[in-house]
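#structure-requests
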Amino acid sequence: MPKKRFSESDIEELLNHYRSERKRLLFQLEHVRAIISDLKSNDPSSPKRAIGTKAKKATAKKKSSGYKKKRGPRKKRTIKDGGYRLSDWDNVILDHITKTGKLQTKQDLLVPMTKFAAKADPKMKPEDVDIKLTRVLQKLSGRRGMLGTYRSGLQRGYHYGLKEWFFASTGKLRSQNLDRLDLATN
């Protein structure tokens, strides 16, 4: 079996990992030693039983009926209205969807996002704009719940629209808003 030769960067990475692990373990050791010394100083020797007395018989304690976990279906996650204010990047997406009045794919939203990035951060690369758009869409359609998603099956990916175009209970697109779906664009 051939031996694997490590490059200098691999060796340096292994050494750094070893050093950090050693530092962590030494910290834990000092922490445990400090706790032990505190316990020894606070609690003088435990009371000794007299010579010749027998040890008491160990009895199992009855489990107290404290907190019991409630059975039943889990509560649905609620989306908070408050929280932090939206960033300019978020507002670009929401404004574009509101202005067009149509469900937009990620590729459709990439155009206004690229224009905004050219003004806001000219040094940003197109790949970074794409990554930023993905994060904004995930945030607005997931955590914040401001966008709804619709999967047509005819095109790859999701179509994003305002949350009021979707049912609140199921998250499906309302039938009266199906005309907002534009499958001709690529």
